[in-house]
Amino acid sequence: MNSPTHQLTISPLGEYHGVQFLLARDELTHPELPGNKWRKLKHNLQEADRLGLNTLLTFGGAYSNHLAAVAAAGRLLGRRTVGFVRGDELATRLLNPTLARARADGMELRFLDRETYRRKHEPEFLAALLHDTGPAYVLPEGGSNALALPGCAELARELLTRTNFDVLAVACGTGGTLAGLLTGLDGQRRALGLAALKGAGFLRADINQLTQQATGRTYTNWELNTDYHGGGYARLGPELRQFIVDFRQRHGILLDPIYTGKLLCGLLNLAAKGHFERGSTVLAIHTGGLQAWVGFGGEPG
């Protein structure tokens, strides 16, 4: 499966405070594997093939876009998938729509208490999981590792050839997408990440580590803003919800509640504060994640 970049479209969002905003509609790339999730999986799947590993083992929360994407990829590509879910209490509840869809796609769901889940990076713990599941290719939570970067870099290079912009902006969870975009930009233009997590200053070091692992380089043409997390990772306050509703009414584009909604709300607020040079163009990326609305009672009206 090739990265379906031919379906990418760019929608102008008008001019705000002297700044032109564009939106790269990467959520339109594939009906089941949209946006950055497929881009981060692409080269990892190739590596799993090279190693002869047909099982994908990964981690995520109850409404994880990453779990949903890995499960869908498993069904579409004929891979066995195993998902370790944060929260052992979920094992005794009716599955939410995200986990139910993942199971329907063939993912084996295994639930870990939160303390145990925090051990997911420990080599000995991973070895114990693999002893139980059998040989598997391990994908980190969120899918961010060095092999996640080349797929995102392809998007950056495509955007450089398709449109003029001064700043490329993306929401950040684990930092892998921004790190990949930086390698694709290769020092051209500036990049801006808006963290979706509260207290996410640690991502700066993580992003530098990822680019160093992938290319042997770190970059200086970027910044991370941690002011627009909306109260926390899975928090959707009334102001952000209303912004997303208004945005959809004005532009006909649905934003997701965890990443791109915060991104656009934050970018327009930064423009109002004079953060961007007047006359500049900011290109934001819609990374998908619309399935997350099931955790908030469905799409907003």
From TrEMBL:
This is 1-aminocyclopropane-1-carboxylate deaminase/D-cysteine desulfhydrase, PLP-dependent ACC family. Residues 4-288 form the Tryptophan synthase beta chain-like PALP domain. It comes from the Bacteria. The modification N6-(pyridoxal phosphate)lysine is found at residue 37. The lineage of its organism: Bacteria, Pseudomonadati, Bacteroidota, Cytophagia, Cytophagales. One of its GO terms (molecular function) is D-cysteine desulfhydrase activity. It comes from Hymenobacter psychrophilus. The active site is at residue 64. InterPro entries: ACCD_DCysDesulf, TrpB-like_PALP, TrpB-like_PALP_sf. PANTHER family: 1-AMINOCYCLOPROPANE-1-CARBOXYLATE DEAMINASE-RELATED (PTHR43780:SF2). Belongs to the ACC deaminase/D-cysteine desulfhydrase family. Keywords: Pyridoxal phosphate. Pfam families: PALP (PF00291). Its cofactor is pyridoxal 5'-phosphate.
